[in-house]
Design a protein that fits this description.
This protein is of the alpha+beta class. It has helices spanning 67-78, 101-116, 123-130, 137-142, 177-182, 195-204, 207-211, 219-225, 228-238, 260-272, and strands at 3-21, 27-47, 51-55, 84-90, 145-149, 154-157, 165-170, 215-216, 243-246, 253-257, 278-282. Strand 9 and strand 10 form a beta hairpin. The chain is globular, with a radius of gyration of 19 Å. The chain binds adenosine-5'-triphosphate. Adenosine-5'-triphosphate binds next to helix 1 and helix 2.
Length: 285
């Protein structure tokens, strides 16, 4: 019976705009997505039947509420797979953090089932299956630097974003994406990020152009509810970050640095000051 391992990468949003609230309650967004070097590791093993999930994370369900389970079941049903699968999740990506941790595990599961059972699905097919699990799943199948529109599922691949170093910090609070969107007055957003300008800056390879357009409208909801986010942003900038931003609906914050040493020093200080529960120095990938 076959066995394989897949890395599921986290994302950050270099820019996030909410264009409007849709009648069905979803929001039309315009975001720049970027894969970063923080990843979960999923191991897949063929079995004779059923889906069994295990994880080293004490915080996640292992039943059908885990997005991994949903993704595996979808593949088994859609492709009439006779056998089953045992999947182990080694969790590193902060949970409920704005880093698409669940979505990327689901995307990795679609890829894993495709390989394990040699189904021959194209990336496009996996993305189409992925959107039935969640709006961010197609992006997670694709990865890299991308513009996401619609509810996040309309994707345009971009040139790789300019090189830099990142300090990613997740404070010890949990933020529900649902709460943030429900409390956003989409029609009342006073300032919209210049996402088109950021796309142009990425295509031109201008880090400066990206930095000056880093903006996330969801900060207007999450920061007043959790001032620690602003505190971390401020501290990162005092410690040499060229800019900092909350990712997705938060609470994760990332700071952009031009040198690894500066990011590492900020890592040490913010860790000592206990401003964040999880901290990573990483890069785009
Ligand atoms: P996004 O950036 O897409 O909003 P997020 O980082 O805010 O994602 P996730 O880490 O994906 O949020 O998790 C949100 C919820 O999904 C958690 O409360 C968790 O219980 C559930 N969940 C189900 N499966 C997973 C999984 N494999 N990994 C993480 N969370 C999962």
């Amino acid at each position: 019976m076959g066995k394989l391992e897949i890395k599921a990468y986290a994302k950050i949003n270099l820019g996030l705009d909410v264009v409007r609230r849709l009648e069905n309650g979803y929001h039309e967004v315009k975001m720049v997505m970027q894969t970063v070097g923080i990843y979960d590791v999923l191991t897949f093993e063929q079995t004779s039947g059923g889906i069994v999930i295990s994880t080293d994370s004490g915080e996640l369900p292992t039943d059908e509420n885990n997005l991994i389970y949903k993704a595996a079941r979808l593949m088994i049903e859609r492709y009439n797979i006779g056998g089953g699968v045992r999947i182990h999740l080694e969790k590193h990506i902060p949970i409920a953090a704005g880093m698409a941790g669940g979505s990327t595990d689901a995307a990795a599961t679609l890829k894993g089932m495709n390989e394990l059972y040699q189904l021959g699905c194209t990336q496009q097919e996996l993305m189409e299956i992925g959107v039935t699990i969640g709006a961010d799943v197609p992006y997670c199948v694709m990865g890299g630097t991308a513009l996401a529109e619609g509810i996040g599922e309309k994707l345009t691949a971009l040139a790789p974003a300019p090189d830099c170093y990142l300090l990613v910090a997740k404070p010890d609070i949990n933020v529900s994406t649902k709460y943030v969107y429900e409390h956003l007055d989409a029609e009342g957003v006073k300032h919209h990020p210049d996402i088109d300008g950021m796309v142009a800056a990425i295509e031109a390879g201008s880090l400066h152009g990206v930095l000056e357009r880093m903006e996330n409208v969801l900060e207007t909801v999450t920061i007043p509810a959790h001032p620690i986010i602003e505190q971390i942003k401020h501290r990162m900038e005092e410690l040499g970050a060229l800019n900092s931003l909350m990712s997705g609906s938060g609470p994760t914050v990332f700071g952009v640095f031009d040198e690894r040493e500066k990011a590492q020093e900020a890592y040490e200080v913010i860790g000592k000051e206990r401003l964040a529960k999880q901290l990573f120095v990483t890069q785009f990938c």
